[in-house]
Amino acid sequence: MLEEKIFDIDESTDLIILPEMFTTGFSMKAEQFAEPMNLTTTRWMKQMAAQTGAVITGSVIIKEGENYYNRLLWVTPEGEVDTYDKRHLFRMAKENDVYAEGTKRLIKTIKGWKICPLICYDLRFPVWSRNVNLDYDLLIYVANWPQVRMYPWDSLLVARAIENQSYVVGVNRVGEDGNGFPHSGNSAVIDFTGKVLFREIDNEVIHHHTLDRSSLDEFRQRFPAYLDADSFVIG
């Protein structure tokens, strides 16, 4: 079913974004659902990327050595795979007891656009998301963010866009999860001024959006607030 939806996506698409743990839903049953790198899901994503000609990304449960990771896979049409492991693990669900945290961000380039993908709870931590020296042009959050906390989700997506002078895309799941928590989606595209360009509530949706690079560059040149940002080092 997911394959059919992907194949229906516009042929001009450069990047396809799937939610957090898109094969299982948000789960602490890592022992049951984890897979090693370069097996089922990785191979499927390589196939989808090759057939659509688009980069495809989303997070899955991966076992590597003795550790489990909530790992975002970034798969190109050429079959190259890069990864980002979720940095901030949601302790209220004991995610930090099950998974190992990531230590490095991932920034990739598509047609001159620098893109930084992060995962769900990372959204709450502005230092980790900080766009130092315009490291990126598009900030992505893939998520399983429940309906009960939609106000922070909506608000923080806008805040991250404004403070980082970047486009922000939040891709969240819908429906009820295995623990009975409803999810309303609220997937969104936010521009660099904080304007909501798209938001979908309560419905499963495939949305195709074209970002305007010239508007971003013009705004950054006219209002270069990033030049006055505080310097810091993440320990």
Automatic annotation (TrEMBL):
Which key words tag this protein in UniProt? Hydrolase
* Enzyme Commission (EC) number: 3.5.1.3
Ranges for domain CN hydrolase come to 1-213
The record's listing under InterPro entries reads:
C-N_Hydrolase (IPR003010), C-N_Hydrolase_sf (IPR036526), Omega-amidase_YafV (IPR052737)
Q: Is Methyltransferase a UniProt keyword of this protein? A: no
- Catalysed reactions, semicolon-separated: a monoamide of a dicarboxylate + H2O = a dicarboxylate + NH4(+)
Source organism, top-level taxon = Bacteria
Give this protein's Gene Ontology molecular function annotations: 2-oxoglutaramate amidase activity; omega-amidase activity
Classification via PANTHER family: OMEGA-AMIDASE YAFV (PTHR47799:SF1)
Q: Which family does it belong to?
A: Belongs to the carbon-nitrogen hydrolase superfamily. NIT1/NIT2 family.
Q: What is this protein called?
A: Omega-amidase YafV
Q: Which organism is it from?
A: Emticicia aquatilis
